[in-house]
Design brief:
The complex is a heterodimer of chains A (204) and B (285). With 204 residues, chain A is of the alpha+beta class. Chain A has one domain: Alpha-Beta Plaits (2-Layer Sandwich), CATH 3.30.70. Chain A is 25% helix and 22% strand. In chain A, a hairpin with a 5-residue loop joins strand 4 and strand 5. In chain A, 48% of the residues are buried. The mean pLDDT of chain A is 96. Chain B is an all-alpha fold and 285 residues long. Chain B has a single domain, classed as Up-down Bundle (Formate dehydrogenase/DMSO reductase fold). Chain B has 9 helices and 2 strands, in the order E-H-H-H-H-H-H-H-H-H-E. Chain B has a two-stranded antiparallel ribbon. The chains are: A alpha+beta (204), B mainly alpha (285). At the A-B interface, strand 2, strand 3, helix 2 and helix 3 of A face helix 3 of B. Bound molecules: iron/sulfur cluster (SF4) (2 copies).
Chain lengths: 204, 285
């Protein structure tokens, strides 16, 4: 069984946010909800200044604190390591949101589904086909596009990225692209001191 | 660039600290009324005040439940919160609340003479369940490493001490005859609350970057005036002075209790609001 993970190559990311739009489209995310973000930061002193872009999403932690605190059993880990949220079981208590050190949980506020993407109360056909996958009020997150993965495809953000800054694959396979990159370029997990054992790594 | 220099960035696409925003006023109110009711019940149980026990059960049973339900995204499925006591403090707490209302109610009926027998056992079970409700919310917060301010053994201690203090003060304000016994207890409890607050701030100031940011929010920037005026001033200093100099005067005891509750509620709210998520520093600038 595979153990899926992702590598972000910070040398390649240009901060175009195509991945963010790809994710919103694939997952029919309501207004204000993002399962992935590309953060930016400037550093240095003029004239030696620089800007770095840091993509983020759910790290599908091996020791996922969001799963441990979930009182309803809605959050669970698939055998392939993808951390999932069951919309039929989630009660929207937010325990997972305050337990995730990476702030990667999103509240699916009931009003957002009523107001629609344009805030007019009109629900477009695009939204109509996408919203039924969520229960209004639930708290959810990125699932590595599990439906696409099951169909043998890469997550939407990975295929949308024009610079190949997002690399997805099986971390248990030493010959997979992410495994090689982690090994050869010293991949680092985010906030390792939180002991969550993320399956997302950064290289630069 | 060091992590400590990064700003609070809200929900933007910038790198920096993000304020915890998922547990807010309704959840703070639920925590407050849960601990207040359980504390009042526990103190009333020790002093055998049936009115106090009834008030405690009503506060926890009605107000805590109401605010929890108003916080939940999917309130109709809230019963599911009881399903994972093996791993979740929320589930354990919910079982504690059910036991508290059940055993507490039975004990109250027993004290009032409506049901006979098992008095000692019911008292023990009701007291134990009340203690669980007085502390579990602190464990629910301190259990996770995400928010460094909360990830401290002092958080359950603060729940227990504030809960007991609030219970004593409400009883003191409503049953003036108990003043002689309760005033020294209340004074000691307020001093313990002050010690817990100082220890919490000290630990945060010397903790991880996120904890330091939270301490800064509470004592120097965004929430400092609320923290010093309401949590420290109204919640600790005012009651201590009033109890020390005029605790026997019922009006003064009522003002002192109001101050304690105002400080306690503000503490509950600010401890949520001052929680921050730390920035991801997975690059070498
Ligand atoms: S990144 Fe957050 S939401 Fe994702 S698995 Fe880890 S703790 Fe859970
Ligand atoms: S909000 Fe949903 S997924 Fe998160 S802890 Fe509560 S029940 Fe579990």
């Amino acid at each position: 069984m595979a153990r899926y993970g992702m590598v972000f190559d910070l040398k390649r990311c240009i901060g175009c946010n195509a991945c963010v739009i790809g994710c919103k489209q694939e997952n029919s995310l309501p207004d204000g909800v993002f399962f992935t973000r590309t953060l930016s930061e400037e550093y240095g002193v003029y004239p030696a200044v620089n800007r770095v872009y840091i993509p983020t999403l759910c790290n599908h932690c091996e020791d996922a604190p969001c799963e441990k605190v979930c009182p309803s059993g809605a959050t669970y880990t698939r055998p392939d390591g993808i951390v999932m949220v069951d919309p039929d079981k989630c009660i929207g208590c937010g325990s997972c949101a305050v337990a995730c050190p990476y702030d990667q949980r999103s509240e699916m506020k009931a009003e957002a589904f009523k107001d629609g993407l344009f805030g007019t109360g009109e629900i477009t056909p695009f939204e109509k086909q996408g919203y039924p996958r969520y229960t209004p009020g639930m708290v959810t997150k990125c699932d590595f596009c599990s439906g696409r993965v099951d169909a043998g495809l890469d997550p939407a953000c990975v295929v949308t990225c024009p610079t190949d800054a997002r690399i997805f694959g099986d971390l248990d396979d030493p010959n997979s692209k992410p495994s090689k990159l982690i090994r050869e370029r010293g991949g680092r997990p985010p906030l390792p001191e939180k002991n969550t054992r993320p399956k997302v790594y950064y290289i630069d | 660039m060091a992590v400590k220099d990064l700003p609070i960035v809200g929900d933007s696409f910038k790198l920096g600290y993000r304020l915890q925003r998922y547990w807010d006023t309704p959840m703070a109110s639920a925590f407050f009324f849960g601990e207040l009711g359980a504390g009042l019940f526990f103190v009333s149980l020790l002093l055998e005040s049936a009115q106090g026990m009834m008030a405690g059960l009503l506060i926890t049973g009605l107000l805590k439940t109401y605010f929890h339900l108003s916080h939940m995204g999917v309130p109709t499925k809230s019963w599911r919160a009881i399903l994972r006591p093996d791993r979740s403090w929320i589930s354990r707490g919910l079982i504690g609340i059910v036991c508290f209302i059940g055993f507490g109610g039975l004990h109250l009926l027993n004290v009032m003479g409506y049901i006979p027998g098992f008095g000692g056992l019911l008292k023990l079970l009701a007291g134990a369940a009340a203690l669980v409700v007085m502390t579990y919310q602190g464990f629910a917060m301190s259990h996770s490493t995400a928010i460094s301010l909360w990830n401290s053994g002092l958080i359950p201690v603060s729940s227990l001490t504030y809960s007991a203090t609030a219970g004593v003060m409400v009883l003191l304000a409503s049953v003036p005859e108990s003043a002689q016994f309760l005033i020294p207890v209340a004074l000691i409890l307020h001093l313990v609350v002050a010690a817990v607050l100082l220890s919490l701030l000290h630990a945060a100031r010397h903790g991880s970057p996120g904890a330091r940011k939270s301490a800064e929010l509470l004592t120097r920037t965004l929430y400092a005036k609320w923290f010093f005026v309401l949590v420290c001033g109204a919640g600790v200093l005012l009651p201590v002075l009033l109890l020390w100099f005029a605790g026997n005067v019922p009006l003064m005891a009522m003002i002192a209790a109001t101050g304690t509750l105002a400080g306690y509620y503000t503490f509950r709210l600010l401890i949520f609001k001052a929680g921050v998520f730390e920035p991801i520093m997975s690059f070498r600038p």
